[in-house]
Amino acid sequence: MSRHYIEGFLEMLLTERGAAENTLSGYRRDLNDFESFAIRRGKDLSIVSAKDIQAYLKLLDDSGLMASTQARRLSAIRQLFSYLLGEDIRRDDPSLNIDSPRAGRRLPKYLTVAEVDSLLAAAEGDTPEKRRLLSLLHLLYATGLRASELVSLPYPALREQDRFLIVRGKGNKERLVPVNQTSKQALERYLEVRDVFCPDGEHSKWLYPSRGGQGFLTRQRLGQLLKPLAIEAGIDPAKVSPHVLRHAFASHLLANGADLRSLQKMLGHSDISTTQIYTHVLQERLKEIVTAHHPLA
Question: Residue 140: which of 223, 57, 64 has the closest Cα?
Answer without folding.
Answer: 223
